[in-house]
Design a protein that fits this description.
single chain; mainly alpha; Growth Hormone, Chain: A; 9 helices; 74% helix; globular
Length: 234
């Protein structure tokens, strides 16, 4: 088998531990976007569609939107995606193995972001908010590149537009067979739940607390996926 064949092959029938990990990462995306949008001045570090739109709004003179922060987030996300692409293109691993590497990097970057957020407090005029943007967007870009290559249907972990479209367009109301409707609903609910938890935790102590929670959730998911991978080999 050529070393890239495992990376190029989608995994529509993904194993249960991989599905659980991807759903958990979808929850983390909600937390991260709550932190970035509410704590970093109306910028997304996971949802890049929002940043592209914000760039247009900012260029049009809309107040309270930062062209610089949206641009920094896009560039950092793109850099993370390049790293994720190199990871999946140049090394042969199982889908779970690729995702684990991305998760280890995400834990590290989120911990650094939490430290930067703790140092920044609620001060938005310093350079530290930009550091939080860069670190979280790098983590999301790297993960997104790996998840894209895994190609598990309806579990992109960062974008829900096609998931919501599929849920409606394939529903019995639309004359479809409603495939994977449970997975689609779970994906939507987990991201909404992450955004809710991120918002609630952001209010009392600032950005560092939801970032620490996000890192802990990813660490727990990584441990679960690692043990599942090991047991599958024995």
């Amino acid at each position: 088998m050529d070393r890239n064949s495992a990376s190029r092959t989608g995994t529509p029938g993904a194993p249960f531990p991989l599905v659980v990990a991807l759903l958990g990462l979808t929850f983390v995306t909600g937390v991260i976007d709550a932190v970035s949008y509410l704590g970093l001045g109306h910028v997304f570090t996971a949802n890049m569609t929002g940043n592209v739109v914000f760039l247009g709004f900012a260029l049009g003179g809309t107040p309270d939107l930062s062209f610089g922060r949206s641009l920094v987030a896009l560039c950092a996300f793109g850099s993370g995606s390049v790293a994720g692409g190199r990871l999946t293109n140049e090394w042969q691993r199982t889908p779970g193995g690729h995702l684990l590497i991305a998760m280890y990097a995400e834990i590290f970057l989120l911990c650094l972001a939490a430290g930067a957020a703790l140092g920044a407090g609620r001060e938005m005029s310093s350079a530290r908010p930009y550091l939080v943007i860069v670190l979280t967007a790098l983590a999301m870009g790297l993960r997104n590149a790996v998840v894209r290559r895994l190609a598990v249907p309806d579990l992109t972990t960062t974008v829900l537009t096609l998931t919501i479209t599929g849920l409606a367009a394939d529903s019995r109301l639309a004359g479809g067979a409603a495939p994977r409707s449970g997975r689609r609903m779970l994906s939507i609910l987990t991201m909404c739940g992450g955004a809710l938890v991120g918002t609630v935790l952001l209010r009392p102590l600032g950005m560092w607390l939801p970032l620490v929670l996000a890192a802990l959730v990813v660490a727990g998911l990584a441990a679960y996926l690692y043990l599942s991978e090991r047991s599958a080999k024995t």
